[in-house]
Amino acid sequence: MTACVTGVAGCIGESDKDLYFHEGDPFIRFEGMGDFSGAVRIVPSCRDETVEISITDGQPNGSIPYTREELGEECSFEIFVDGEHANTANVSGTQQAEINMDESGEIFITDIQI
User: Domain of life, per the record (predicted)?
Assistant: First the structure.
């Protein structure tokens, strides 16, 4: 008999659990923000709360509170920099989004696959 966990990702057998991010794993992380200092606002589709993260010299000041509540949970995030829409991250159950900023101040997103 195969054990199965049902959720957003569908029916996942025991051997498939390693292919998905788990409960408590973060959806997104900041990496490579350069010398940017300012506010980044993150609006999730899967949660009610919006957070604003202060970044000083490229380093997030504070934690990013969005973690998965179940195995393979998916979510989209609208990202605003200093009040202007910068990008959208669509994160599947097998991904984590890495938010980066290039030298010109543009936000780009890299999907980290398991």
Answer: Archaea
